């Protein structure tokens, strides 16, 4: 009799655990809140209008520092609440389109950089440190 009770308890625990795990997997994306916010500093379209370069500040709350980021997107795409896809640094910076597929980023030489991609989609990116 004790064996049957023990098996019943183990089955109940297993079923309850499985149910809770599945409920978590199904419903957690609905209730997860992204605590980060992007604030666009500047958006500059490429000369041919195919791309837009977004400089934005990303703030993820009190436990992290604000960062300055760059995303290069097709003009019909919106800047989502995600990290930049090209450049991430701790300091503000400037950008300039050299032509429709080449962007130059000027950033302070003392800046700490976390991401520095040389190409995003079909846009080449050159980085220059300046003594600001």
What are the main properties of this structure?
132 residues, alpha+beta, 2 domains, five-stranded antiparallel beta sheet, four-stranded mixed beta sheet, 9 strands, 42% strand, elongated, DUF5412 family protein, DUF5412
Shape, principal axes of CA atoms = elongated
The quaternary structure here is single chain
How is the biggest beta sheet arranged? Answer: 5 strands, antiparallel
Judged by helices, strands and strand pairing, the structural class is: alpha+beta
Structurally, the number of domains stands at: 2
Spatial order of the strands forming the largest sheet? 1-2-3-4-7
| Estimated radius of gyration | 24 Å
| Weakly predicted, low-confidence segments | none
Helix content range of the residues, please? 10-25%
Q: Strand share of the residues?
A: 35-45%
Q: Can you give the mean pLDDT?
A: 90
State the distance separating the first and last CA atoms.
Answer: 81 Å
Layout of secondary structure:
Layout: H1 2-31, E1 37-45, E2 51-59, E3 67-74, E4 87-89, E5 94-99, E6 102-108, E7 113-116, E8 119-120, E9 123-130
Parallel strand pairs: 6-9
Antiparallel strand pairs: 1-2, 2-3, 3-4, 4-7, 5-6, 8-9
């Amino acid at each position: 009799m004790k064996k049957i009770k023990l098996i019943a308890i183990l089955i109940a625990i297993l079923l309850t655990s499985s149910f809770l795990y599945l409920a978590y997997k199904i419903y957690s994306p609905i209730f997860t809140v992204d605590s980060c916010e992007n604030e666009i500093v500047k958006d500059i379209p490429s000369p041919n209008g195919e791309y837009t370069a977004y400089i934005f500040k990303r703030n993820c709350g009190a436990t992290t520092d604000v960062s300055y980021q760059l995303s290069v997107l097709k003009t019909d795409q919106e800047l989502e609440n995600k990290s930049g896809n090209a450049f991430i640094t701790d300091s503000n910076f400037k950008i300039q389109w050299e032509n429709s597929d080449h962007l130059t980023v000027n950033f302070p030489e003392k800046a700490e950089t976390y991401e520095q991609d040389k190409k995003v989609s079909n846009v080449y990116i050159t980085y220059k440190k300046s003594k600001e």
